[in-house]
Design a protein that fits this description.
The protein is α+β, with helices and mostly antiparallel strands. The chain has a single domain, classed as 2-Layer Sandwich (Double Stranded RNA Binding Domain), CATH 3.30.160.100. It has three helices and four strands. It has a four-stranded mixed beta sheet with strand order 1-2-3-4. α2 runs parallel beside α3. The protein is globular and about 40 Å long.
Amino acid sequence: MRIAVADIGRAFGRQTRAYAEYRIFSTLARFSDVVREANVELLPLPRERHAARCRVTLILEGDHRLYVSGRGRHAYDAINRTARRVGDVVTRRTGVTSGMR
């Protein structure tokens, strides 16, 4: 499984980038048999002070794509909300609850 974190370090710093990568990876680790790739973006929401939106694009076996996003009061909140949703969405879509098929 490959995880790509797009330009988060520029807008939010390296620590936030590392946290996003860790949090999404730890959520997806149990789905390593079905998730081939994850692309993570974190975007500031300029109209709301410190608020952010985290978007994850998942590429599953068979080239199926899932899109999951979450917004939060700050970057870490957005990342955490999205990570929880990612687990729920992949479980519903694939029926996989662990790394075993």
